[in-house]
TrEMBL record:
Positions of the Major facilitator superfamily (MFS) profile domain: 27-481
Keywords: Antibiotic resistance, Cell membrane, Membrane, Transmembrane, Transmembrane helix, Transport
Principal localisation: membrane
Species of origin: Kitasatospora kifunensis (Streptomyces kifunensis)
Protein name, as recorded: EmrB/QacA subfamily drug resistance transporter
Domain of life: Bacteria
GO biological process, one term: response to antibiotic
Length: 495
């Protein structure tokens, strides 16, 4: 073969490699767009709830179901959806989730009654679970190189954090400028923007086949247990933590989850292989995430309420007041996180980011009744940039030992712990704030000081949760060598 022919062959091979590399990054954009749609919906509804209540005639207790009807199926189906991605192909599950979510969003926007909206929100939660459960697993498969994976997960985490802040802004602006129906209609163009390119950019997968893990009984047990558990958590604001309702339903949820664990230990083809928990990185990262997300999501919801109820902000002003958080997390997660993780390792990056979050909540816990946004709130929004460092590191640790065959279920598990942490954070911190404020008002304190003091207590507890997650990171995620799939071509990487 002549040298000219060899040069042409090398050039063609180089072009093909560059084209394949570009396609991977375009595929990441598609996955991020789908995730953005799901994340937006998680916060965009928060600011619009008063308008929804006035328009559709929700009672105070019934209004909570605008959020609960989404959270329950979302949390309950994540693990099952992740495993389905491994079995039938993650691309199919991703596209199915986008389709269901978009159709449900249209139904939400057209809702004319509380029952209609709640039913559509339940369907929306199911679609969100299908899309979210497989996204992180596809990223792990697309980017086997640790350095590239770090950058990809940083971009993915940026979408999650900034999307939440963007949801606050969009929720306020759309509700004030148009009406609350548009907070759901906005999902339709995003679904098209993600779904149409996904058909071409995401590689088709046949999966392992349903026969390799179609554990119907296990699926029924874990879905029922998670749904019942989240239902119990979100209803504590109405019934209280020590009520027969909470204790009874909580015990039933734990019994179903315990039965699921027993089933997985005995099943020939388990839905969630218990061997995954031999990974110290996976087990520790999921436990740390429950605490961290409980604190961060609770902070996000409670700060929005504080700005409106204590400082008197409107919906749009509240959204813009939360925007610096998204901007700072974007700067850190896109510009710094991959470099810091690559230089110091994900464990140290996680601890550094968590330390910044502790400082933020410690500062917020002393916020006065008549606060200045610039002096008392804005520094907190800037320190929350620690999340842009901690969240990509946490995702990387949770997926560090996942093989291509198990990446879907590992992704589903990671998203499940995230959702359970968010539900716990809102329920626990919201109940604490409301209960403390009510006690102060009963003791003769003014309404505004009582409200502010209730929020201060919740922020203090959030700080404690972050300190505990920092301690668990130090203990459970000690430096070691992670296992990798045989033949993957990767070298063992330190935590």
């Amino acid at each position: 073969m002549s040298s000219g022919t060899i040069d042409i062959t090398h050039q063609l091979a180089g072009r093909q490699h560059r084209a394949a590399d570009r396609r991977r990054w375009y595929a990441l954009l598609v996955l991020c767009a789908g995730t953005l749609m799901i994340i937006l919906d998680g916060t965009i509804v928060t600011v619009a709830q008063p308008a929804i209540q006035r328009d559709l005639g929700f009672s105070d207790s019934g209004l909570a179901w605008v959020m609960n009807a989404y959270q329950i199926p979302f949390a309950g189906l994540l693990l099952l959806a992740g495993r389905l991605g491994d079995l039938v192909g993650r691309k199919r599950v991703f596209l199915l989730g986008l389709t269901v979510f978009a159709l449900a969003s249209a139904l939400c926007g057209l809702a004319q009654s509380p029952t209609w909206l709640i039913a559509a929100r339940f369907l929306q939660g199911a679609g969100g679970a299908l899309t979210s459960a497989v996204s992180l697993g596809m990223i792990v498969t697309l980017f086997p190189d640790p350095a590239e994976r770090g950058r990809a997960i940083g971009a993915f985490s940026f979408i999650g954090a900034s999307g939440a802040s963007l949801g606050m802004v969009l929720g306020g602006v759309l509700t004030q400028a148009l009406n609350w129906h548009w907070i759901f209609f906005i999902n339709l163009p995003i679904a098209l923007a993600a779904g149409l390119p996904a058909l071409r950019l995401l590689d088709a997968e046949h999966g392992l086949g349903l026969g390799k893990g179609a554990d119907a009984l296990g699926a029924l047990l874990v879905t029922g247990g998670l749904m019942l558990g989240v239902y119990t958590i979100v209803q504590t604001g109405r019934y209280g933590w020590g009520s027969p309702h909470t204790l009874g339903y909580g015990a039933a949820a734990l019994a179903l989850l315990a039965a699921f664990v027993v089933r997985q230990a005995r099943a020939t083809q388990p839905l969630l292989p218990l061997r995954l928990f031999r990974s110290r990185a996976l087990s520790g990262a999921n436990l740390v995430q429950v605490l961290m997300i409980a604190a961060m999501f609770g902070f996000q919801v409670l700060v929005a309420l504080y700005l409106q109820q204590v400082l008197g902000y409107g919906p749009a002003a509240t959204g813009f007041g939360m925007l610096p958080t998204g901007v700072m997390i974007a700067v850190v997660s896109l510009g710094l996180s991959a470099k810091v993780i690559g230089r110091f390792g994900p464990r140290r990056a996680l601890m550094a980011g968590n330390a910044l979050l502790v400082l933020a909540l410690a500062y917020l816990s002393r916020v006065p009744d008549h606060a200045s946004y610039t002096v008392d709130v804005l520094p907190v929004m800037l320190l929350i940039a620690g999340g842009g460092l901690a969240l990509p590191a946490l995702a990387g640790l949770a997926m560090a030992d996942a093989t291509p065959q198990d990446s879907g279920v590992a992704s589903g598990l990671f998203n499940t712990s995230q959702t359970v942490g968010a539900a716990l954070g809102v329920a626990v911190l919201g109940t604490l704030a409301a209960g403390h404020s009510a006690a102060l008002r009963a003791a003769g304190h003014g309404a505004l000081p009582a409200l502010a003091d209730g929020y201060r207590l919740a922020f203090t507890v959030s700080c404690g949760l972050l300190l505990l997650s920092l301690l668990l990171t130090a203990v459970l995620l000690r430096p070691g060598k992670r296992r990798v799939a045989a033949g993957s071509g990767e070298q063992a990487q330190p935590y």
